[in-house]
Specification:
Keywords: 4Fe-4S, Iron, Iron-sulfur, Metal-binding, Oxidoreductase. InterPro entries: 4Fe4S_Fe-S-bd, 4Fe4S_Fe_S_CS, NADH-UbQ_OxRdtase_51kDa_CS, Nuo51_FMN-bd, Nuo51_FMN-bd_sf, Nuop51_4Fe4S-bd, Nuop51_4Fe4S-bd_sf, Thioredoxin-like_sf. It comes from Peptoclostridium acidaminophilum DSM 3953. It contains 22 helices and 17 strands. The protein is of the alpha/beta class. It folds into five domains: about 100 residues, Glutaredoxin (3-Layer(aba) Sandwich), CATH 3.40.30; about 210 residues, Rossmann fold; about 80 residues, Roll (Ubiquitin-like (UB roll)), CATH 3.10.20.600; about 90 residues, Up-down Bundle (de novo design (two linked rop proteins)); about 55 residues, Alpha-Beta Plaits (2-Layer Sandwich). The strands form five sheets. It has a five-stranded mixed beta sheet with strand order 10-9-13-11-12, sandwiched between helices. Helix 6 packs parallel to helix 9 and helix 18 runs antiparallel to helix 20. Bound molecules: flavin mononucleotide (FMN), iron/sulfur cluster (SF4) (3 copies) and FE2/S2 (inorganic) cluster. One iron/sulfur cluster binds next to helix 17 and helix 19.
């Protein structure tokens, strides 16, 4: 192990802070001081490492040692054993779920081996609250290069040639969007907007980037503003992201003090400033026209496109809306060149994509992989396989707008087109892994409940249609489905997709349509046999006691929260079905397998 001055990087992302990573920092600093080690090691609070499921994370550099599930009490051993003694603190090293081995070198962690961090390049590497750290990592060099070496068209061409496409869900070519906005009423007031609304349930890519590397987003907005001829920028961020907002504010203040925001940036005649606007957490406000209305102080309702924001956006002026992750790629593309970026990925989808990997998977967290990586690689190589040794069932990509991908398509290389062709979509990057214990009708119902709740109500197909679809699904999960329900869902779904005003309604039926496509038998079981094979639909579960097996031990009666199990000691017990709330406690309590469910 190296004995040069070490850096002890401690995760300061929301996930790890909620597990007291700040207590770890405090104790590490105290231990270094008490042991006279302040000259030998420095504690740095960094952004999210991505491996949030194993947090709080501490990484020691240059040794490349990655400690997981660290507590403030571990600070003493990290300093005494590792910093002073040059030895690993074995008990907090990551244990590989497949080999069951403790991993000593970060590079050997399968979670990271296939990742390629471009948008997340500085997360977990730099102190996001210290602009000097960003500058030391070539921060603001791309902006300087653009302002002093490239014309506006040259910047746009670099982004176009890189093949970067919007990471907010639509996949629209970013350079082309910049070009259209530049050409639209050139010379007039224009705006660049960073979309940090991030409303997909379970997604936190954009939050992590802003918490861990807000400067890269600020720098990218300035580059885009220069190229398009804008002088004002807005970051639209949900108010539920207080840490991201805090770090963004610090970064903006520091950028202003350094002259990277404000007037005559890098001694040129380019002026650019950014303001922050807060969203109240409505999913629809992530849609760009709704977002613009919300920024203007109106109701966050979408409007018909065209006109697109690039023609008529904020205050009626040409406006470019870009997603956080899209922007985070921009400085790296400018510095490394368009070819460097376009060499990563597939023919039509260049670069990398960040996914929030969650659900029934061993390694939960943020992963950034080259486009073209297969789902199998993400689920098994990076994700470490299915939790608890269960059987893989499907992956839901694209959140409430996407669909399920089954075993048969696990080897599909992920890009915008391939996901669409198998009935799902990239979306903003939510990826929920489902196993054999998940009921697909219930999953579809969950997403539809979300979208019908979030529907702004402006157009009838979405407002009424999603409600009707939800009601049908609700009935099916309660054992009241009708034979015609599947056809009705398919018909309604297609109708809503083709007639809803905005992307929310146009994609809302996707989870239902794709689960019917791949798991129709589960729908049929619920409707025709009143049977949910996973037992997730509680109304379809009926607990009974097998008189052949019951020995009258009374354990079930003692745990039943509503007292609906009758029976004397050593006599067969009976459940009162009228009173049973289907909690399953008796099932778990019976050691004789006498409580049965279908
Ligand atoms: C219902 C709905 C919600 C959306 N939410 C977001 C969001 O949270 N973040 C985002 O960047 N884009 C979101 N979008 C896409 C935006 O409308 C827009 O296409 C995107 O911000 C453009 O940036 P990009 O080209 O960099 O992807 C949403 C779209 C719809 C229809
Ligand atoms: S599709 Fe839904 S969210 Fe979009 S405008 Fe219509 S009602 Fe509103
Ligand atoms: S716990 Fe099982 S064996 Fe005991 S009384 Fe209940 S059903 Fe019968
Ligand atoms: S499922 Fe719950 S409520 Fe029903 S009998 Fe068993 S313990 Fe009682
Ligand atoms: S929040 Fe700490 S690793 Fe993600």
């Amino acid at each position: 192990m190296s004995t040069n001055k070490r850096k002890i990087l401690v995760c300061g992302g929301t996930g790890c802070i909620s597990s007291d990573s700040e207590g770890i920092i405090k104790n590490l600093e105290l231990e270094l001081k008490n042991n006279g080690q302040e000259e030998n090691a420095q504690v740095v609070k960094v952004g999210c490492f991505g491996f949030c499921g194993q947090g709080p994370i501490v990484k020691v550099e240059p040794d490349n040692v990655f400690y997981v599930r660290v507590s403030p009490d571990d600070a003493k051993d990290i300093v005494e054993q590792h910093i002073i003694g040059g030895d690993y603190v074995e008990r907090i090293l990551f244990v590989d779920p497949l080999s069951n081995q403790r991993i000593h070198d970060y590079k050997d962690m399968s979670f990271y081996a296939k990742q390629h961090r471009v948008a997340l390049r500085n997360c977990g590497e730099i102190d996001p609250e210290n602009i000097e750290d960003y500058i030391a990592n070539k921060g603001y060099e791309a902006l300087k290069k653009c302002l002093t070496e490239y014309s506006r068209d040259e910047v746009i061409n670099i982004i176009k040639e890189s093949g970067l496409r919007g990471r907010g869900g639509g996949g629209f070519p970013t350079g082309l969007k910049w070009e259209i906005t530049k050409k639209s009423r050139d010379g007039e007031q224009k705006y660049v907007i960073c979309n940090a609304d991030e409303g997909d349930p379970g997604a936190f890519m954009d939050r992590s980037i802003l918490e861990g590397d807000a400067h890269s987003v600020i720098e990218a907005m300035a580059i885009g503003a220069y190229a398009m001829g804008a002088q004002n920028g807005v970051v639209y961020i949900r108010a539920e992201y207080p840490l991201a907002i805090h770090r963004l504010m610090i970064a903006m203040q520091q950028a202003k003090e350094k002259g990277f925001l404000g007037k005559n940036i890098f001694g040129t005649d380019f002026n650019f400033d950014i303001e922050i606007r807060y969203g109240a957490g409505a999913f629809v406000c992530g849609e760009e026209t709704a977002l613009i209305h919300s920024v203007e102080g109106h109701r966050g309702e979408p409007t018909v496109k065209p006109p697109f924001p690039s023609e008529s956006g904020l205050k009626g002026q040409p406006t470019c809306v870009n997603n956080v992750e899209t922007l985070a790629n921009v400085p790296a593309i400018i510095l490394n060149g368009s070819k460097w970026f376009s060499d990563i990925g597939t023919e039509k989808s260049k670069g990398t994509k960040v996914f929030a990997l969650a659900g029934k998977i061993n390694n939960i967290g943020l992963v950034e992989v080259p486009m073209g990586t297969t789902l199998r690689e993400i689920v098994y190589d990076i994700g470490g396989g299915i939790l608890g040794g269960h059987k893989f069932k499907a992956v839901q990509t694209g959140g409430p707008s996407g669909g399920v991908i089954t075993e048969a398509d696990l080897d599909t290389p992920i890009d915008y087109e391939s996901l669409k062709s198998i009935g799902s979509m990239m979306g903003s990057g939510g990826m929920i892994v489902l196993d054999e214990t998940d009921c697909m009708v219930n999953i579809a119902k969950f997403y539809l409940e979300f979208t019908q709740d979030e529907s702004c109500g402006k157009c009838t197909p979405c407002r009424v249609g999603t409600k009707r679809m939800y009601e049908i699904l609700d009935r099916i999960t309660k054992g009241q489905g009708k034979p015609e329900d599947i056809d009705n869902l398919l018909e309604l779904g297609e109708m809503i997709k083709s007639s809803a005003l905005c992307g929310l309604g146009q994609t809302a039926p996707n989870p239902v349509l794709s689960t019917i496509k791949y798991f129709r038998d589960e729908y049929e079981d619920h409707i025709n046999k009143h049977y949910c094979k996973t037992g997730k639909c509680k109304d379809l579960v009926k607990y009974t006691i097998d008189p052949e097996k019951c020995i009258g031990c009374t354990a079930c009666a003692r745990v039943c929260p509503v007292g609906c199990i009758a029976g004397e000691v050593k006599k067969v017990h009976v459940i009162d079905q009228e009173k049973c709330i289907k909690c399953g406690a008796c099932f778990d309590a019976c050691k004789f397998n006498a409580v049965v469910k279908p």
